[in-house]
Every structure is written in C-alpha cells, then in structure tokens.
Amino acid sequence: MENQSITKDNNYQRLIDILEAEYLILRQKARKAIDTTMLLGYWRIGQYVIEYEQKGNIKSEYGKKVLLEVSKDLRKRVGGKGLSRTNLVYMRLIYLKYPKSQTLSDQLSWSHYVSLLSIHDDLERSFYEKQCINESWSVRELERQMDSALFQRFALSKNKEEVLKLSQEGQKYELPQDILKDPYVFEFLGISEETLKKESQLEEKLIENLQKFLLELGKGFAYMGKQYRITLDGVHYFVDLVFYHRILKCFVLIDLKLQKVSYGDIGQMNMYINYFKTEENVEDDNEPIGIILSARKNDVMVEYALGGITNNLFVSRYQLYLPDKQELQQKVREILET
C-alpha cells in the first residue's frame, strides 16, 4: 500500500483546480492587505513629520535637511530602502494632500500614490485617482495615461462644470460621445508617419499591441475582429475594426484613415452603422457607434458632412507621438477660467 501511486483522475484534477484558485485568492488578499497597511503606515509617518515641522516652525529649506537626517538615522536603526529621503518626501506629501486617511483608497497601492503625487494640479490628480480605481489600472498603465495627457484630452471637449465633474468622478460611460477622445494617442506603436505607408499596416500594429490599444480606447471595449465583411448587392465592404462596448451595450465600428477624412468615408461609415443596426444587433443592443480615426481632418467639412445624420457617427484624430502636455494644460485652464 505504501508504494501505491496516486490516481490523478478528474476528481483529483478538480481538487488541484480548487486549491489553486483558493491559494491565488489568498495571495491576492494578502498582498492587498500589505499594500493597505503600508499605505496607512506611510501616511502616519507623514503626519508625524508635518506635526514636528509645525511645532518647530520649520521652513522649507531647513525641512529638507531635517528629512535627510531623519532618513539617515532611521536607516541606521531599521535599515531598508523604504526610508530614503525621497520616500519621506512623498510620505510628507501624501499627508498634506490627503489630510484625512479615510480619503485614501484601499484599491490603490503606495506606488500608485507616488505616481499620483507627482501631479501638482489637484483636479488632474483627482481625475487620475478616480479613473485608476474605476478601471483597475496598474502603476504602469496609470503612468502611461498620465504621459498621454488623458485628463486634458477628455477635458477639452467639455465645459467648466463638466471638467470639474470629470475631476471628481472620473470618466463615466453613459452616452456614445463619452468614449471619444480627440486625439487618440498611439505612441506605443513605436512608428512614425514617415514609415506608415498603408492603413493595413496601422491596423496590424494596433492588433499586435491590442492590450495597449484597449487601454487607450478605455474601459468596456471587447475586441470582436478586424476586416469584418459586409456584402451588399454582391459588393464586399470591410470594417477595419469591430468592438463591443460592454457598458454601453453596443457595437463600436472603427475605420482607420491615413489621410484626411472625406465625405465619402463618412457616408461609408454611416452605411456600416445602418447594416449593424439591422443585421447584427440583438434585442438588448443599443445603436452602434461608428468612429473614423484619421491622422488629420477638416473640421468644417466634417461638420457639414455629419449634418442631418442621426446615427452615432464621430470623426476623431489619432497621433503617433505623445501630445504637448503643457499646451493642453493651458487650454484646460482657459476652460476653467471662463
């Protein structure tokens, strides 16, 4: 009996599956508990530092020297990289920006907050914090969205009240236009306009980098396919990219254009939307959304070409490089000052 081998039948495999799932959940909860404990602990260290400064009426320059000495003395006692002067600066800052510990999210780690604290504008920081929670961004994804000026790109299509709401709640997906950006930023493709020769090349690059493309599109997008064929009167037409938006409950059709959008492109997308509305939608689906993405567009022509179209059809730009963030920030400030 001692030498009897274990029979790894279906019941045994189910046991392994159950134990694996339980262990992964346990490990995730443990990591989250550690992150939350560390975050609150660092917040309290920041509180003690600020209280010390206030009692001693310590000024900025002298405060920097104090933090350096505090870091040296603490590391002599307990060691570790977590007590560097840089980290102490962020601990001090997190208490200043979040004086009530209850306003810190247990869904975000200390590393998330270090990235958020690099944003000086309170409205912008609040937006990224809410969006990070809403869309479960990793630290790397958060930093990518910050670098791509996501807040400014959303804010430029809104008025003052909407910008303030955006900063307080993050981006909500309730209407078709809520998913739009102008421009979309595809810097993750690592290509330039000079090397981009065909629309099919752009399409292939986006699919190769699908995870990053979905991050740029935003929450709720599910990839359905490329070059979706539509046949009408024996003629084949192809929608470049097809997605389904889980929150808005509708198809999202995307056509890619290397040159300026023409009125013919708009008419073709309108046809695609009508086809999907009639042939592909099921009972619970909302009307499809069509987005034409172009490197450049003539706003006046687009305005006239879209006039009278009742479908959810939009034209946006894309660019292959990060935007000028300072320029976008200035435009948002102008909106807030009106």
**CATH structural fold name of the largest domain:** Trna Endonuclease, Chain: A, domain 1
Structural class: alpha/beta
Number of domain units: 3
Helix content: 40-55%
- Count of individual helical segments: 13
pLDDT averaged residue by residue: 91
Ends distance: 84 Å
Low-confidence stretches are none
Rg from alpha-carbon coordinates = 26 Å
The largest sheet, given as strand count, sense and whether it forms a barrel, is:
6 strands, mixed
| Overall strand count | 6
What would the principal axes of the Cα set say about the shape?
globular
Spatially, the strands of the biggest sheet line up as 1-6-5-4-3-2
Provide the β-strand percentage band. 15-25%
What's the CATH C level of the largest domain? Alpha Beta
Secondary-structure element string? HHHHHHHHEHHEEEHEHEH
What is the correct CATH architecture of the largest domain?
3-Layer(aba) Sandwich
